[in-house]
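Lay summary

Proteins are chains of building blocks that fold into shapes. Our project writes down both the chain and a compact code for its shape. Here are two examples, one after the other.
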Amino acid sequence: MNSTFQEFSEFEVKDFAIKFPGEEKHSICGAIGSCEETLDAKTIKKKYKGIESKTRTCGTGTGELKLSLHMNYQKYLEIYGMKDEELKDGVYAYGQDSMHPVFSVTEKVTDEDGAVKFKAYPNCTVKRRNYQKGRKWRRRCRRD
């Protein structure tokens, strides 16, 4: 059986798992939702006497995931660095001292025909972006 996809358009995230450094395995923390992936690329141009002789485009190994899904609240607190032992139980804070830890992400993704694909992002952190209309949060991932 050939496992190469001839055509695959991501439609839905079925399983979403996170693993922090020091943990043995990924813990499933997301339910059905969607994920938009943007990978960064760079173009290298080789010039000879001022004339382009060769052009190559390759990936940089970085990119962004924009997730829209329900997830485990305790894992949400961990990825945003909102757990503080000094606060009472059930009270969480986000501020200048909140450090976004590095974690890895795995996903089980399906397309509209039900074909399944597994994806992994081994080096992720949460990145904040400011927009003119409100704030959106994105997870910044880097493939090693």
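And here is the second example, written the same way.
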Amino acid sequence: MSSDRSRARLAAALTRWTRRRVITVIAAALVVTVGVGWLAYAASYAPLTESGWGGLEPSSPAGVRDALADRWRIDGPAGTEVQLMMGVRSTGPVPVRIDGVDLDHVVVSARWSLYHLTPGGAISGDARPWREFNATLPAHGELRLMVTIRQLDCAVPANHGQGFDYITVRWHALGIGHSTRLNFQKTVDICPV
């Protein structure tokens, strides 16, 4: 009789231990699945896009002209700086922290300002103060981005044919860093051939 009781106690203990183990394994699998899903979503999250407008910053000195329907040309001697603006929009459901724009020997600075459109006003929005990065772009929000472009010395053969049509914006959302290529409406010719 006592051996039957011992076996019954052992079976009950094993059942409790097995049940706990099964629950633990299921909970761990659920945590891993949710974690992998979250990481996959956060890593593929890409809400930044161009707003569909852009051009010469109104207070920028002369130096950019429409060379063709799809190109801007920087005019002036080496070192001439002009500012181009573009709208940047977040299409996503969570805020984005924009850390900055990749700079080089042509794109020498970038700043941002709030975007506020007044009915009947310019598509580039109301004049707002320009700020240094970092910028927090709210979900479904928009900001103005201004980049300063410096004319190269076009007498140097290595500079012939220089130009660009996009900038790379560095940003963070959902705890993960990203970079996104944003296209200007036109190619910017620095030293056209």
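What can we say about the second shape? Residues 1-44 form one domain.
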